């Protein structure tokens, strides 16, 4: 099996300038139509998704979300929605002939049609009540949360903690937590199984298993994993890192040495693709078959501390309570992360109940949200009022972003 990762040039640099954040990240759930109503829609059961390298498509196109970590540029890569569309088109499904139930379980036989139908249903909207919660797109408050974690790692330690991201979508904050730790247990949850399969899992595996290069300017980079009958010359830096981002998101120092060869026991090589004289040549990193033992070791280590879930928030705690081993940690978490999930008061009630059930005493929940969601009945103020009325938690605004529409990171902890 061959995997190819292509990095597009539309890099997003996360800074305090809100105009930069508008390059390719979605701003407001209310900017696009919201379909449907939550009335009489049954709650989706919790489904656990098993990480599986073989469920990745033959090709992925990712672009970097660039943020600043201790004054150094760093990137986490995310899959683009257009790449999902391309994958489903390549699978040549016959839309309209198979009316697969969008609520039923996904099987290998029904997955192509199910995913194509799902994408066809959601591509023109950001929300469909009871059907879709916007997870196919990367929302800017998730990047605010990513930035906050990077800036406060000394006061909010992650190592050895149990961490949950609710409504994860692209999963950027969780990927950061996985990169930063070796022993933290990180779980990601999204409402839609399709989002977990098509967006969350590819993002997690790409960022955690392969040493992805730090972007330089707006240059695209192609990264491919191929099986060769004969070993090839390679760069040795990849062998030195036990995890893909052991150098905190930076590329190996010689990852752009124009294809120069290095020692024989490495597992990566860099070359430049042929192109016309008036076209810039595209650097390509090849991971050869000699990478497989190390790759599988990293994958096995990742599966021990990363779990993926889909379904309604109300179903997650009962599922975890029923599946968790008998141990002191039970099914609760030290840190719960969520972003762009309080845009409606109905969502706020469910989120509050989930945090109350899943956060351990002494734990912290971080909620990244816009102060106001135009056209929606939920915002930071209505959520604060809910928390105050219940009298169980303390809320503190710990960070603000945005020069026009204010965005906040809120810390929530038991009284």
Report on the architecture of this protein.
- This protein is α/β, with parallel strands linked by helices.
- It has a single domain (3-210, 302-414), classed as Rossmann fold (3-Layer(aba) Sandwich), CATH 3.40.50.
- Helix content is 28%, strand content 24%.
- It contains 11 helices and 17 strands.
- It has helices at residues 18-21, 81-90, 111-122, 140-151, 172-180, 193-209, 237-240, 292-303, 313-323, 345-358, 380-390; strands at 3-7, 12-13, 34-35, 47-49, 59-69, 72-79, 127-128, 162-166, 185-190, 221-225, 268-272, 283-287, 306-310, 333-339, 359-370, 393-401, 407-414.
- The strands form 3 sheets. An 8-stranded mixed beta sheet has the order 4-13-9-8-14-15-17-16, sandwiched between helices. Strands 1, 2, 5, 6, 10, 11 and 12 form a 7-stranded mixed beta sheet that branches. Strands 3-7 form a two-stranded parallel sheet.
- Helix 10 (345-358) links the parallel strand 14 and strand 15.
- The longest helix is centred in the middle third of the chain and has 17 residues, at 193-209.
- The protein is globular.
- Mean pLDDT is 74; it is low at 1-11, 16-24, 29-39, 93-97 and 227-283.
Structure summary:
InterPro entries: Methyltransf_16, SAM-dependent_MTases_sf. The protein is built from 11 helices and 17 strands.
| Fourth-tier CATH superfamily name | Vaccinia Virus protein VP39
Judging from the principal axes of the Cα atoms, what is the shape?
Answer: globular
The proportion of residues forming helix, as a percent range, comes to 25-40%
The number of domains is 1
CATH topology: Rossmann fold
User: Between the first and last Cα atoms, what is the distance in angstroms?
Assistant: 52 Å
Q: What Rg do the Cα atoms give?
A: 21 Å
Largest sheet: 8 strands, mixed
- The appropriate CATH architecture is 3-Layer(aba) Sandwich
The average pLDDT score comes to 74
Number of strands: 17
The string of secondary-structure elements, in order, is EEHEEEEHHEHEHEHEHEEHEHEHEHEE
**Number of helical regions:** 11
Side-by-side strand order of the widest sheet: 4-13-9-8-14-15-17-16
Low-pLDDT stretches: 1-11, 16-24, 29-39, 93-97, 227-283
Strand content: 15-25%
Indicate the CATH class.
Alpha Beta
Structural class from helices and strands?
alpha/beta
């Amino acid at each position: 099996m061959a995997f190819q990762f292509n990095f597009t040039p539309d890099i997003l640099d996360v800074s305090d300038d809100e105009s930069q954040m508008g390059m390719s990240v979605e701003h407001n759930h209310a900017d696009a139509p919201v379909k449907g109503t939550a009335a009489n829609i049954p709650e989706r059961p919790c489904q656990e998704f098993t990480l599986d390298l073989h469920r990745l498509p033959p090709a992925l196109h990712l672009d970097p979300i660039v943020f600043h970590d201790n004054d150094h540029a760093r990137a986490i890569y995310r899959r683009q929605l257009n790449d999902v569309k391309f994958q489903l088109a390549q699978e040549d499904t016959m839309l309209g002939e198979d009316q697969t139930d969008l609520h039923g379980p996904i099987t290998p036989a029904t997955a192509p049609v199910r995913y194509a139908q799902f994408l066809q249903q959601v591509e023109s909207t950001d929300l469909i009540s009871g059907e879709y919660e916007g997870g196919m797109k990367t929302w800017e408050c998730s990047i605010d949360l990513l930035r906050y974690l990077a800036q406060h790692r000394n006061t909010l330690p992650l190592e050895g903690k149990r961490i949950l991201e609710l409504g994860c979508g692209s999963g950027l904050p969780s990927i950061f937590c996985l990169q930063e730790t070796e022993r933290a247990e990180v779980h990601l949850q999204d409402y839609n199984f399709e989002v977990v399969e098509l967006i969350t899992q590819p993002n997690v595996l790409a960022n955690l298993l392969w040493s992805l290069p730090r972007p330089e300017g707006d240059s695209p980079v192609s990264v491919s994993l191929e099986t060769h009958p004969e070993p090839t010359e390679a760069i040795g830096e990849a062998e030195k890192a036990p995890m893909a981002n052991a150098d905190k998101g930076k590329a190996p120092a010689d990852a752009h040495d124009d294809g120069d060869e290095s020692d024989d026991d490495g597992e990566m090589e860099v070359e430049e693709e042929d192109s016309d004289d008036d076209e810039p040549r595209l650097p390509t990193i090849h991971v050869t078959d000699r990478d497989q033992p190390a790759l599988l070791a990293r994958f096995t280590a990742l599966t021990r501390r990363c779990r993926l879930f889909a379904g309604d928030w109300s179903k997650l705690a009962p599922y975890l309570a029923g599946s968790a081993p008998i141990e002191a940690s039970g099914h609760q978490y030290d840190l719960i992360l969520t972003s762009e999930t309080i845009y409606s008061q109905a969502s706020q009630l469910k989120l509050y109940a989930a945090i109350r059930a899943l956060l351990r005493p002494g734990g912290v929940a971080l909620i990244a949200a816009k102060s106001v969601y135009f056209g929606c009945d939920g915002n930071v103020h209505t959520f604060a009022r809910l928390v105050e009325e219940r009298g169980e938690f303390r809320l503190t605004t710990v960070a603000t972003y945005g020069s026009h529409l204010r965005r906040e990171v809120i810390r929530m902890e038991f009284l």
